[in-house]
Write a structure and sequence with these properties.
Length: 402
């Protein structure tokens, strides 16, 4: 569920603050790939030329050097033209080709969809950004050091609530053969978080927490009286015509349509396991969506372009707070309401989110002048460090700047 995090909670849900245990989980995949050593050489496919060659070569490196089984990308240039690329194999057993713009589990990109619906409700006068969650869900948020009267909707969306991250306490469980096929009620996820004390007083710090977005999803359901999946589908997916994006139904474990298989190693040095079929309810409002690189570009372009939110709500979304340097999100990254701003190597900012869940990772960003890039890989790769930056995110930067 996102993020370039130091806490690759399956739904890496991208960023978050560090944890030795979850850091080890991310390192596991790289170790397993190195042990296996049998991945086919990258076979890149793509459309376009010129700067497209750089993207194609970048995908080949992700497969060859970072040992991802498959890599996919979609880009939009200033000319408005969309280009798609693939490298590697979709299935380690059969060696099948990677489907162009294939579907992947989008992880924490789901947060941007959830935040968009919340901000639409703000625009409709049904939700107040600076109203406490206690006003909407009275008596629900309780725990050691947790003061729900000070946890506003804004603080949930920007990760300044101080609420503990439930995925930190479920990594080992979810990787098990049984739990990965378990359906988790949203309240179960919240209860897991509230067993632990607050990270800090609301508004006094920043820490990536999927719990914030479970509460945002519950808020949407309380205010609208309708299921979260329906609201995201009606208000976002159908509204801008994302034909390959969907919110999996209750109990739906497979991925519809053409997709590469997702892989994960559950222990250091262990074999890669096929995690394509899982119950993604563990991510819910924080990381359950399925999408494609092309659809992610279309969503974030429509969002930044003002097609989903009013001017006032979009301005609130793009009002960012600083992220700690040790967050693992990268130099200069700031967090808004469900989106991040990232400085580009060629100047200016790009907007997006990114996300990870067992089997798949995505990085993506769009610019105000219409450029867009999204890269998806199968599996969680090596944890980014000062000496080894996030190679998938680096390719997004390359695609946007060249």
């Amino acid at each position: 569920m996102t993020e370039r995090s130091r806490r690759p909670s399956s739904v890496r849900v991208l960023p978050s603050t560090g944890s030795r245990r979850t850091t080890a989980v991310v390192a596991v995949l790289a170790a397993a790939l190195a042990v296996g050593g049998t991945l086919p050489a990258a076979a890149a496919q793509g459309s376009g030329s010129g700067s497209g060659d750089v993207v194609r070569q970048g995908l080949e490196r992700l497969v060859r050097e970072d040992r991802y089984p498959a890599a996919l990308a979609a880009t939009v240039g200033q000319d408005g033209r969309t280009r798609t690329y693939t490298a590697g194999v979709a299935d380690l057993r059969t060696g099948a080709k990677v489907p162009v713009d294939g579907r992947v589990r989008a992880g924490s990109n789901t947060k941007a969809f959830t935040a968009t619906v919340v901000l639409q409700l703000v625009g409709e006068g049904k939700v107040g950004l600076d109203t406490s969650i206690e006003e909407y869900l009275p008596g629900l948020v309780r725990g050691e050091g947790i003061d729900s009267s000070r946890i506003t909707v804004r603080r949930l969306l920007q990760h300044t609530s101080g609420l503990p991250n439930y995925t930190e306490y479920m990594m080992d469980e979810y990787a098990g053969a049984t739990s990965r096929h378990t359906y988790y009620q949203p309240r179960t996820l919240l209860d897991r978080a509230l067993e632990h004390k607050a990270l800090f007083a609301p508004g006094t710090g920043w820490a990536y927490s999927n719990t914030n977005y479970v509460l945002a999803g519950l808020l949407i359901e309380k205010v609208t009286g309708r299921p979260l999946a329906e609201q995201i589908t009606h208000r976002v997916i159908d509204r801008i015509g994302l034909r390959h994006t969907y919110f999996p139904g209750v109990g739906e474990e497979g991925i519809r349509g053409a997709h590469p298989r997702g892989y994960h190693a559950t222990r250091p040095g262990g074999p890669l396991e096929d995690f394509t079929r899982i119950d993604p309810s563990w991510g819910w409002a924080a990381g359950q969506l399925v999408s494609t690189p092309g659809d992610l570009n279309r969503f974030f372009s429509a969002l930044v372009g003002g097609r989903l939110l009013g001017a006032a709500e979009l301005a609130e979304m793009r009002t960012t707070v600083a992220v700690p340097e040790d967050s693992g999100m990268g130099a200069g990254v700031r967090f808004g309401l469900g989106v991040t701003s990232t400085p580009l190597s060629c100047g200016g900012l790009a907007w997006g989110h990114g996300g990870s869940i067992h089997g798949y990772s995505t990085r993506n960003a769009v610019t105000d002048d219409g450029r867009a890039a999204a890269v998806a890989v199968t599996g969680l790769g090596p944890r980014p460090t000062a000496d080894r930056p996030d190679s998938v995110q680096a390719l997004v930067d390359t695609a946007l700047c060249r």
